[in-house]
Every structure is written in structure tokens, then in C-alpha cells.
Amino acid sequence: SVGAQRVNSLDPNTGKELWYVDIPGFSNVPRVVYGHGLAYIATGYMKPQLWAIDPRGKGDITDSHVKWKVIRQAPAKPSPILIGDILYMVSDSGIFTAMEPKTGKEIYQERLRGKFSASPVYVGGHIYLCDQDGKVSLVKPGREFKVVAQNEFPEGFMASPAFSGQ
């Protein structure tokens, strides 16, 4: 149906479906992130949400294995990032959220200037948040929001940058 999609898990050797979850939205852009025994899935456009799914089920696990959902300020384009015991996400409108990966409980939420398409990138002990206008904020991972530097790139970012030669 319009506005709904399915996330499937397939056996890599046979292609056989192992499980599926029906999620809202369409045109899923962010990549799946895995850690702490859960798969973190952003649901895509129209109704961006972030879902944590226990991937140990079989068949339709929509009602049985979805452990938590964040229904506000989730990204449609940027992928979440898991660093140790904190899951981070930045919404397309620039809301940066840190949360507990096992429960989805918010640790903090801060507004950044700008619109975001690029995913957060973790390099050299910092999270790089690159907006569409070219502003780059370096955030120190942890339970408190701390911007340690900001830079400007006039071209802007629609995709996540690649880093080399730290």
C-alpha cells in the first residue's frame, strides 16, 4: 500500500526470507545499523521514524520483535551511527539526538543550523556533522553535547564525506 514498506532479512547463502517487518514510509535511504543485538532501521520518507528490531525472529516479526521506536525527529536521509553505548542520529532538519541503543531513551537532543542529507561520520574521536550549506560541526561523543570545532565548505554536502590519512 502507499506509504508502507517491508524490511526483509534474507539468508545470504540461499536468498530465502528469514523474517520481515512492515514499517511506515517509502524510499528508504539510510543504511541499517547493527549493534547491541538490535538492527536500527530508519523508515524513510513521509513518516520518518527510527525502529530497533531484534533480528532473531522468523516470519512476520512486526508485532513481536520491534523493541522500540522513535517517531519524532528521525532522519529520512542521514543514517544513524552507533558509537559504543550511544546511538546518534541527525534529522534532515538538523535535530541531533543521542540515545540509549537498547531502549531508545533520549540522552540529549540539540538543534543544529542547516538541513542534512549526509550521514554523521566518526573519525579521529569526533562525530562530523556536515550540512547541505557546507557547515561542518565536530561533536565529541558522549552523554553531553559538546561541539569542539566548526568549519565551512562552500560547496555543501549532499552525501557523506570520505576521510583519508588522518
Beta-strand percentage range: 35-45%
**Unreliable runs:** none
Largest sheet: 4 strands, antiparallel
Strand order of the main beta sheet, please?
3-4-5-7
Helix content: under 10%
Task: Report mean pLDDT, rounded to a whole number.
Answer: 94
Output the number of helix runs: 0
Radius of gyration: 16 Å
Secondary-structure-based class equals mainly beta
Number of strands: 15
**What letter string, H or E per element, gives the SSE order?**
EEEEEEEEEEEEEEE
* Straight-line N-to-C gap: 47 Å
What gross morphology would you assign?
A: globular
Summarize the structure.
The chain is mostly beta strands and 166 residues long. Helix content is 0%, strand content 43%.
Secondary structure layout plus pairing:
Layout: E1 4-10, E2 17-24, E3 33-35, E4 38-42, E5 50-53, E6 59-60, E7 66-70, E8 81-83, E9 86-90, E10 95-99, E11 106-111, E12 121-123, E13 126-130, E14 135-139, E15 147-152
Parallel strand pairs: 2-6
Antiparallel strand pairs: 1-2, 3-4, 4-5, 5-7, 8-9, 9-10, 10-11, 12-13, 13-14, 14-15
